Amino acid sequence: MRLLLARHAPAEWPQGGEPRYRGWSDAPLGEAGLAAARLLARRLEGEGLATVYSSDLLRAASTAREVSSRLGVPLRLRRGLRELCFGRWEGLSHREILGRDPERYRRWLEDPLGAAPPEGESAALCLGRAWEVLREIRERHPPGSAALVVSHGGTLRLLVCRLLGMPPANHFRLRLDPCGLTTVDWEAERPVLSGLNDLSHLEGAR
């Protein structure tokens, strides 16, 4: 089968400025985000999607809904596809966490799979729940079919590493932009990366 993985469209966060760990915090899509989601939906026409699966967080679900409504295919929300939960670090920047919790933050950067933010979850736990959703998708859809997964940067990077047999701790080496499309095809029961972070459908909108 063909598995298409898309990071959600840009959300409209109340705080601007430097990047922050968003995790399970949530925000709606702004006009730019909705426009990007519609371009993603247009790009996926002709892929023969059977179903769209999505994280239940608003920024992902809204992106997925644009695709499912345009293509007329079912949308299934899955909590297992959520972003990694950052606990008490939610909404903070790298600089802010380093200032407040330097020792724990360094441990987490050194061991992202085993360590976890305070009251958050480790990357291993995040990958485990997301992998169960991929297992469901594989069981539901026969060879020759296609399904879309709309999720979050961290979760998708971990899944791509697992699919390709790469150490999940290296997931920070992958770049997945908002509405970027990654394609995995199964050939002789082996997942093969056919495309990574394709943004061609957004040309002219950035």
UniProtKB/TrEMBL annotation:
Keywords (A to Z) from UniProt: Isomerase
Binding site for substrate: 59
Alphabetized SUPFAM superfamilies for the sequence: Phosphoglycerate mutase-like
The enzyme's E.C. designation: 5.4.2.-
Main EC class the enzyme belongs to: isomerase
Domain of life, source organism: Bacteria
Residues in the signal sequence: none
Keyword Transit peptide on entry: no
Residue ranges crossing the lipid bilayer per the database entry: none
Active site: residue positions: 8, 83
Any one GO MF annotation of this record: phosphatase activity
Record flagged with keyword Isomerase: yes
A single cellular component GO annotation: cytoplasm
Pfam families in the record: His_Phos_1 (PF00300)
Annotated protein name in UniProt: Phosphoglycerate mutase
Organism placement in taxonomy: Bacteria, Bacillati, Actinomycetota, Rubrobacteria, Rubrobacterales
